[in-house]
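Structure catalogue
Derive C-alpha cells from sequence
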Amino acid sequence: MEVGLQSHAKALSPAPAPCFFRARILRGPFSHHRMKTSDFDYHLPEELIAQSPAERREDSRMMVVNRQAGTIEHRHFAELPSILRPSDLLVLNDTKVVPARYFSNDGRCEVLRVEALSPTTWKCLVRPGKKFKLGRTVEIGEATGTVQEILEEGGERIIEFDREVDEEKHGHLALPPYITRADGASDRDRYQTVYGKHEGAIAAPTAGLHFTDEMLSRFAHEFVTLHVGIGTFRPVSADDISDHHMHSEVYHLSEQTAQAIHRAERTIAVGTTVVRVLETCAIDGALKAGSGDTSIFIHPPYEFQAIDGLLTNFHLPKSTLLMLVSALASKDIMMHAYEEAVKERYRFFSYGDCMLIL
C-alpha cells in the first residue's frame, strides 16, 4: 500500500564525508576488495516497475537520502523547492529523444538506429540478427536499406538506405525493455523532458521527466548535453565490475555552464548522465568546457569532484547506474535505501519515482 505524504527519517550507518576535489578512483586499503556485480543485486517485485508515467510530471514521490546524516526521508517531488537551497544550481541534460525503433513493412524484422552516420546511413541493432547478412535488404516505408557491414564487437549493422526513412510516419520510441507495452502517442510527450532541445538520444534522461516548466523556473539552472545511447540498457555481464567495458556516449559542456558551476555554492546534477559529463570534464581539479565522447565508469570507491548532490530515478539491479549512485552515497546506504523503496512501494525505473541524494 502507499505510504502517507508526511516525511520521516530512518537512521542508517553514517556515510563518509564527501570529497569534491580530484575525480579519480580511490586507491585506499578498502579498494583491495574487488567488487562483484552481484554486490549490487536486489529483489524487485515486477509490479513495482512503472509501465506508464504519473498523471502529472510533478506527482512522483521522492526519497531523500542524506549521506552525511545517514537518513532517509519519504517526500514528494513537488517538495523539492523546500528541500534545496535558493543558492543551489541544477544542471540538466537537454538531449532530446528521437524515434529510433523501426519495423520492416512485412513486420518480420526490427531495426534500432543506434547512430545516424548520415541521413541515409545508419548504425543499427537488428532482430533477428541471423537474417541480416551482408547484402540483405529491408524495406521500411518507401525506403529500402541494404546491409553494408557487420561490426564485430557489438554485432551492429551498417545499413544504407536509398532514400530517407520517414521518421514521423514509421519511427517508434525505443521504450526500455522493462516497459512491456508498445509505445503510444502519449509517450511522444511524456518520454521527453520539457526542456529537451538537441536531438540524438535513444533513451530519455529520466530524472528530468519530473520537471515542468514552472518547477524548473524556480531554480537557477544550466544544461549539458549527452545523447543517451542503447548501452544504458545493456547489463553488466562481467562478474568483477572492474572487467566491465563501459559504452561510449557523445557529450557537450558549454563554457556558460562550466562558469555557472564554478560560481555555484552547490551543484545538483539532475540524472546520472549529467554526472558522467561533469566528471569527464573535471580535469586537474577544474571543470573545463568541451565536447567529446565519454566512456567513464563510476563505481565505488570514487571521489567526486564536480557535484554536491544528485536527483535520479531508481535503477536496475546490477546496473552501472546503481553502481554510480552507490559511489556517491556508499553501497551500504544505497542498498538499504533500495530495500526501503521496495518496502514502501515506490515506482521504479524510467516512468517511476525519484531519489534525491544530498
In short: Residues 1-32 have pLDDT under 50 and may be disordered. The first strand starts at residue 9 and ends at 11. The two ends are 27 Å apart (CA to CA).
